[in-house]
């Protein structure tokens, strides 16, 4: 196994511990990077110019506790005047906060309370109407919130902890929730009723910790259960289309490549190992950060 590759560009934030970070997934705000620490969210502008990374901190937002997860609103834009920066956080206090700012003078924070345990994931509806924010929690619920005023619109009971919620940009009126039990349910935002569901076929009780929905091909969903990854085709729901076994104890995070549907990245434990795999088939491209197999 080769050594870890050197960072192309690194930026220090002093003694701050970083808990999460997220680039905006939207073309009109793709240079925005949000970094969640123990007591603030740092918004930076990241650009690649003349073979160099330009990293500039634009603004810092105070946060009352460590940030568990982040989500960007489709209304965020670096191209407009004034700029629009809108994102949501979930903290270890179980509260969700929606931040809106012009990155100059204006700043507004909307606090959402209702979960009784850790919030594991949040997601804005990927639509410029910006109506809904969805959250999942260890309190066995999925909650739908109004982005406009923070009202709780609906609570969906789950059978186990809600680990992840995902939208697909090509189908903004649908979202899915994966539970720790492995059950994955697709919902409609029209009435927040279930459309269909998937469930894992393994007899062992592997916990499901994450899932993702391909932005290249909206028929593909991947779910992480223990050391396995199941590949689902929404056009054929009876059984997974494929199952990949990863050489680790637990798959913690899994993500499709944003532009190539055949690749996915996997964060596993133990150890800080990122694996890149073909999304259909057990062909490993890299087995750790910067190392490759022939």
From TrEMBL:
Chain segments annotated as transmembrane: none
Pfam families (UniProt xref): WD40 (PF00400)
GO cellular component: nuclear pore outer ring
UniProt-recorded name of the protein: Nucleoporin Nup37
The species this protein was found in: Daphnia magna
